[in-house]
Amino acid sequence: MNKKWHKISVALLFIVFAIYGCSGENNTVLVVGEHEISQEEFSVYCEIVKKDMVDRDDTDQINKEAAQYAAEVYSLFDIAEECGAEDAFSYTTFKQELSETNEGNRDKIQNGDVVMGLVEYSEADYFEYVLADYRQKTEEKLADTADETMLAEAELYYEENKSDYIDNIEFEYQIIMEEKGELKTEIREIDYQTLTQSYHSTDILGDILMTGNIGEKYDTGSGEVVLLKRDETYFSFEQVEYQAVLDYVINDYLPNLIKERSEQMEIRNNINRIEK
């Protein structure tokens, strides 16, 4: 769909949404692709997008962002179904599962059992929970079924993000301290494995070795440290292939695919079915 007409169509939809979008009725007010969205379902999306908005009374902006959100989530739902990660999303089934989950949690509380997560989910909170589950299963399914093209793309991702796949780091540093009125220096070496076992993330020395600049002098409070060497070695792509593919899917492939699908997805209202 031409992006210009896509924007015009969405703009026209906002006029309808401003009147009907979050009223709580059950008529179809939005269609994204082949998916009809009722006013009740759209109201859930309104509640979700409002969480990140400064002006939560700006109805036009809420409807605009909720429409875009709907296109994005249904793009994910379509991808999940296509790759076999999940069945097609059903809002009716979603509401039934929400009711059963809340009822089950209430029963657990009455029986003195521990409830993991929220005791009582709102529709918005439960939708975000379900959406996260859809996304994780889709990410894992895409990584599990990666073809040669995706493997090649994942290897490029690995090369661009090698620092995420460190095998070991060898450090060499100089300690400068005052002892009995005299300055003393000592050259020391340590590797990453030993460093992580010996130091906490809040320790000054560990922070200097991991993030400091070679040749610079740093005050530790009890002396000074000069970082002399930091040599990193990395796992090969073959050693971390699945994790690299999964990382690529999570951080690059799937977000871009959802963006592309949502931008191409036809968004239209169904004015004739709205009760005025």
What keywords describe this structure?
276 residues; alpha+beta; 2 domains; 4-stranded antiparallel beta sheet; 3-stranded antiparallel beta sheet; 9 helices; disordered C terminus
If you had to describe this structure to a student in words, what would you say it looks like?
It is a single chain. The protein is of the alpha+beta class and 276 residues long. It folds into two domains: 166 residues, no CATH class; 73 residues. Helices cover 54% and strands 18% of the residues. It has nine helices and seven strands. The strands form two sheets. Strands 4-3-6-5 form a four-stranded antiparallel beta sheet. It has a three-stranded antiparallel beta sheet with strand order 2-1-7. β5 and β6 form a beta hairpin. The longest helix is centred in the N-terminal third of the chain and has 25 residues. The two termini are 30 Å apart. The C terminus is likely disordered.
Find the count of extended strands (DSSP E, 2+ residues): 7
Question: Could you describe the largest sheet, including whether it forms a barrel?
Answer: 4 strands, antiparallel
Helical fraction equals: 40-55%
SSE sequence, one letter per element = HEEHHHHHEEHHEEHE
What low-confidence regions span 5 or more consecutive residues with pLDDT below 50?
5-12, 14-25, 271-276
Using only CA atoms, what is the Rg? 27 Å
